Automatic annotation (TrEMBL):
UniProt-recorded name of the protein: C2 domain-containing protein
Localisation: Cell membrane
Topology of this chain in the membrane: Lipid-anchor
GO cellular component: plasma membrane
Source organism: Hordeum vulgare subsp. vulgare (Domesticated barley)
Gene3D superfamilies in the record: C2 domain
Length: 588
């Protein structure tokens, strides 16, 4: 094995499968795949189903790189009405022809129907290693092969694992195989937070100290090691202390199921050297924490006891409520939108303009973004009244404004429904003159002001600001300062880039590359609250929609805010004491 998990960030040195986002991905974002649910409901198939978790590995893949090994990623599809629908992607594993992926795909198994699956493996080019996997254009990657099966073929296997030969697009055999493993998922909300450190690890490097990281795997009944998380890499240290990790019971299964804890010396080539391994259950790890003792690592397959030891500094068992727990108990996502009216968009009267209103009814990029995002979020906002602003235009009063109400008919910034946003947007194009520069700070501050005011009275509202823009911001540092301040508030910021501008600068606002924003005073953002998506790149990729890319991190950001502040879902409302139906008449 030995391959490192690049995930989305920093060439494989960041953690995977830990913390709020992992929990959200496993439980908080609606659980089973929504594309499949939509297909089943659309065909009237609403019967019983079993939620499954799919894990993946591959062996003897083709080596497509000249000076190193391939960097494989697996993409999962289901066939719907004869066409392929993507339902999941793994992380990228660097320099490995024997990948064992951590990222799982959730899927509902239904006995009554045939569920065809397609698996495609790609070698991700080095220049895309810092690109989030959801943004990768598969047409730009090397194709390593594909495999097909029905879900029923996997679940009927004794160990729920099926190995398939890889083929090319014409069906001819290629080198390599892939294995898919299924397990039923549990909807338990129990989670364990642990902090690990090691002492006296054996040094595997000649001219410096090793760069250790931990990988934790669950051992199935057939002794298959299924990776569930890894820590970050600690450079040049034989006594590393890692950041806390949180494992849900969905990841570790039960307190008494065995886990394999391996410590590796990170190597950028992907050939990580094992520094030691041990086997323990969650219950045994808790006892290790209570005893304050260390557990010795062993060499490969337990052949030799090593001097290196593993310690637990913290062990906290807790309940992790899901996104739907909050939403179903009355928590809201309050939607807000800000539209770029700077001159770089072009004259709205000409078809070349990004703001051109097509008489045929074809939506421009701004209208598309407004419609797609508001159609999803409107159902989580009870009154469906949305603050809507514009920025970068000369308003009728004569001055350039960087935060003005789209609803010019009243002093109220709110409009009703997404139809109200669309109408106010179109009307504004006829009442303002496009100007500049492009400043985000004022609209972010306005949204933060609303969120801050809300916190003083209620804790069940979370705000989502959508900013749609065509270009590079002029107030980059002021924007970063505003985002860092807002990271303490119940607020997420979604940014859609429209047009063909260079959005490289915009990506620095999104912490997907593993580095949180820092303000001009040196303060680091409490959490990542920004998600940036360039519309043209996502549309060109063709695998996911803009709204999917934009909203996928939102449940995790919501959960991180609620959990770090100890805000719990509201208890369920008890039914009225009066019976729903009158009692039966007395017997005569």
């Amino acid at each position: 094995m030995g391959g490192c998990f690049s995930g989305d960030v920093r060439g494989g040195t960041e953690p995977v499968g830990v913390g709020a986002r992992a929990a959200a991905a496993g439980q908080g974002q609606g659980g089973p795949n929504e594309a499949v649910d939509h297909f089943l409901q659309g065909h009237g198939l609403r019967g019983l189903y079993t939620p499954l978790e799919l894990s993946f590995s591959a062996s003897k893949l083709r080596d497509m790189d000249a000076l190193s090994k391939s960097d494989p990623m697996l993409v999962v599809y289901t066939k719907m009405d004869g066409r392929l629908e993507e339902i999941g992607r793994t992380e990228v594993i660097l320099n490995s022809l024997e990948p064992l992926w951590i990222t799982k795909t959730m899927l509902n198994y239904q006995f009554e129907i045939v569920q065809p699956l397609v698996f495609r493996i790609y070698d991700i080019d080095t220049k895309y290693h810092n690109t989030p996997v959801k943004m990768l254009n598969l047409a730009q990657q090397d194709f390593l092969g594909e495999a097909f099966c029905n879900l029923s073929e996997i679940v009927t296997k004794f160990n729920h694992s099926l190995t398939l030969n890889l083929r090319n697009g014409s069906g001819h055999a290629l080198q390599g195989t892939m294995t898919v493993h299924t397990e039923e998922t549990a909807s338990s909300r129990t989670a364990v937070e642990m902090t690990f450190h090691c002492l006296n690890l054996d040094n595997k490097d000649t001219f410096s100290k090793s760069d250790p990281f931990l990988r934790i795997s669950r051992l199935s009944e057939s002794a298959v090691a299924i990776p569930i998380c890894k820590t970050e890499v600690i450079n040049n240290n034989l006594n590393p202390v890692w950041r806390p990790i949180t494992l849900t019971s969905q990841q570790y299964s039960s307190r008494d199921d065995p886990l394999l804890v391996e410590c590796f010396d990170f190597d950028a080539s992907g050939d990580h050297e094992l520094m030691g391994a041990l086997q323990a259950t969650i219950a045994q790890l808790e006892n290790l924490y209570k005893s304050k003792a260390g557990a010795n690592f062993y060499s490969h397959k337990g052949q030799k006891k090593l001097k290196g030891q593993l310690f637990l500094d913290t062990f906290l068992e807790k309940v992790q409520h899901t996104f739907l727990d909050y939403i179903s108990s009355g928590f809201e996502l309050n939607f807000m939108v800000a539209v770029d009216f700077t001159a770089s968009n072009g004259d709205p009267r000409t078809p070349q303009s990004l703001h051109y209103i097509d008489p045929s009814g074809r939506l421009n990029s701004y209208q598309q973004a407004i419609l797609e995002v508001s159609e999803v979020l409107q159902f989580y906002d009870k009154d469906r009244r949305f603050p809507a602003w514009g920025f970068g235009a000369r308003i009728p009063q004569g001055s350039v404004s960087h935060c003005f109400n789209l609803n010019a008919s009243t002093n109220d910034c709110e409009v009703v429904g997404f139809e109200g946003i669309m109408s106010a947007y179109s009307s504004t194009l006829y009442t303002v003159s496009l100007a500049g520069p492009t400043l985000f700070g004022p609209v972010i501050n306005k949204a933060a002001e609303i969120a801050s005011h809300s916190v003083q009275y209620v804790n069940n509202k979370y705000f989502v600001l959508l900013i749609i823009t065509d270009g590079v911001i002029t107030d980059e540092q002021e924007t970063k300062d505003s985002i860092v301040r807002a990271s303490d508030l119940p607020l997420s910021i979604l940014i859609v880039g429209v047009g063909s501008a260079d959005f490289t600068q915009m990506r620095t606002l999104d912490a997907d590359l593993g580095k949180r924003l820092q303000s001009s005073t040196g303060r680091v953002a409490t959490r990542d609250i920004v998600q940036f998506v360039p519309m043209r790149e996502v549309q060109a990729g063709g695998q996911v929609t803009v709204v999917q890319s934009l909203l996928e991190e939102l449940p995790g950001q919501f959960l991180e805010y609620m959990r770090t502040r100890g805000i719990k879902p509201r208890p369920p409302q008890h039914a009225s004491a009066s019976p729903a139906y009158p009692p039966p008449p007395p017997q005569l």
